[in-house]
Write a structure and sequence with these properties.
This protein is mainly alpha-helical. The chain has a single domain, classed as Arp2/3 complex 21 kDa subunit ARPC3, CATH 1.10.1760.20. Strands 1-2 form a two-stranded antiparallel sheet. α2 (about 10-30) crosses α4, α3 crosses α7 (about 145-170) and α4 packs antiparallel against α5. It contains 7 helices and 2 strands; from the N terminus they run ααββααααα. A hairpin with a 4-residue loop joins β1 and β2. It is about 70% helix and about 5% strand.
Length: about 190
Amino acid sequence: MSAMERSTVKPAAGRVALVAMLIAVTAVFTLLIRIPVPATQGYFNFSDVAIVFSSIAFGPAVGLAVGGLGTALADAVGGFAQWAPLSLLAHGLEGLLIGMLAYRRPLSMRLLGWALGSAAMVAIYYLGSALVLVGDWVVPLAEMPINLVQAAAGALVGVPLYHAVRRAYPAIDQLGERPTWTEEDPEAR
């Protein structure tokens, strides 16, 4: 392996440590401030900030792991274990979609990724609540606006946070996934 090839190889242990740390940060953001939603026994939190940041900064696989595992872990240890499987699916898909559309892409794609990921999260929570947890199609509607506000907070803080971290630490680009496309638009950052 040449010196150039070695410089582009990412250490597996470092990548695992990064993902584990981001999962922990997501769990903390989920548990730090919880505002209950009595109708569905769910709660408002700031997990989406960590999910949006991680997905944009490090790509879809990291977004999937961080979103799904971080929120499910927080639910399991925070007294909302019945929500853990749904959070794993809803926030995991949210992180995956944001990362797929936003990672190393222009701001317009970041916002589109956030919008589609957030819509998927809200829809999965609605369907999961209606079909499994609450057993009613009307009651989960009470949580939809709260989930939308949570998603908006994720974008309002997560996107600028990514830009601030990238300005302060440009090497963040070396920590994410390799893009699957061949040309990288320098303006996409």
